[in-house]
Amino acid sequence: MARLPDQPTVTIVGRPNVGKSTLFNRLVGRRRALVGDEPGITRDRIYGMAHWAGRDFRVVDTGGILPGAKEIIPSEIFRQARVALDQADVIVMVVDGRTELAAPDRDLARLLLRSGKPVFLAVNKIDVPALEAQAENYRQLGLKHLVPVSAEHGSGVAELLDQIMRALPPRHAAGEAEHAGETQGTSVAVAGDRRPTTDDAFADDQRPTARDEIKVAIIGRPNVGKSTLLNRLTGADRAVVSPVPGTTRDAVDEIVTRDGQVLRFIDTAGIRRKGRTELMAEKLSVVMARKHLQSADIALLMIDGSEGVTALDANIAGYAHQSGRSVVLVVNKWDLVQQRARELGERRLASRGAHTARRAKLRPADPQRYEQEARHSLKFLGYAPMVFVSASSGRNVEKIFELVKQVAAERRKRVSTGEMNRFLKHVDFDRAPAPFSKQVKIFYMTQASTSPPTFVIFTDRDVKLHFSYERFLENQVRRAFGFVGTPIRIINRAREEKPGQRGR
Ligand code: GDP
Ligand code: GDP
Asked: What angle do helix axes 103-114 and 74-87 make, rounded to 10 degrees?
């Protein structure tokens, strides 16, 4: 049967009892199109529709001709392979990670590889992380994309799906309608920039060419709500929720288009990945933040509002600042902060006179006061706008899109040298604090580059600018031109350089 042109098809193959139908059920839930697995009845294949990362796709379980048969027979291998070759855009071969690799597995893998289609190996029944090492045995099959999963418990399935999405034909080639997500965005997973592309030929043509895309990293310590926010922002109706740590090292990004603006969320598999112990998770969150910042234009730095700014938050914020990326501070779990304020009011009502209590009860959590306190611990991020959200309820999450757009524009903004020097004339440099030995006279100033905005001041002296002088100048620039969200760099160049001083 030729595959229908409108939806991409993912075909599941494998020996009997490896867990194909368990995986199928997990992918499609109750949305089966055809069920034919009554005992004794020949079951050729089962179709179902699945949805992941904003895309609908068809899943085919090739099943088994002889239900309950313990061994796969050669004709069955060929039948499965043929179904896969005829219909599949992507093939998922399932093996049982708890059993030895068997000859039929090798035969099937070989046939599938010859098809030239993307093949993923789901090593199933890896119910606990300790079994992951065992899954590695199946590398012998020569399939590059191996994902340990537990079809029964759901772990690893999200990673498998993320990888499958990358290998699907582009949406328009597949003739699908755009799917409007919860946030009116559309999302699709694609290969991350940092993937070794030689190992990943079929992902290359999936990469969007949009030069104007904004790369967004969601960073923060464990449990601040990064995954929850990501799900909100990508608007994906998750068919499968994986409650267990992910397994693959592969970076997967998700693209969201909103109002014509393309946002790329970096390494979404990484964002969802959790450490196994608290300490591991904390270390991982710092490693991830640093890695994600490298590829990002903008970082959404998340804080758990109910806990306030912790030392680890400040540590991650420090990396964000140093990276030169723009930052939006996202204070999450604002619902909890408000709930707590309400409870406090109620307690006051119970313990004090009705008059004071009524006033106290009416006082909601005050974002302004909260912001003041939070900023005190994150002084160096004074340029980062702060937004108060509840990722789990979706409250205020829309604002993040607006801020990202605004911050991205500010980051790319260029001020002409004419404007810059008109501005300079109005700055009262007598107010600039700097020790005498570090005082400079500015002849003129120009914006040398954007992302982040970098300014060169041409002065009479080749000295490193005193930090308070630099800060003064930065504040003046911001007051005149904004540059919200982005750090600013200022470089001093002595106008009359002596020979040999260039490039200092
Ligand atoms: P199929 O014949 O390949 O479609 O395999 P089934 O989906 O019928 O599963 C075969 C058996 O393996 C069933 O008893 C399932 O409950 C079991 N099974 C499937 N997935 C898992 C898993 O992730 N872990 C464990 N422990 N058992 C599984
Ligand atoms: P991550 O480790 O940063 O990815 O955090 P998760 O997204 O896994 O969230 C950690 C926990 O916080 C989960 O139990 C979420 O349900 C919960 N959570 C996330 N956002 C909110 C929120 O806005 N309000 C409340 N009350 N809980 C939230």
From this structure: 30
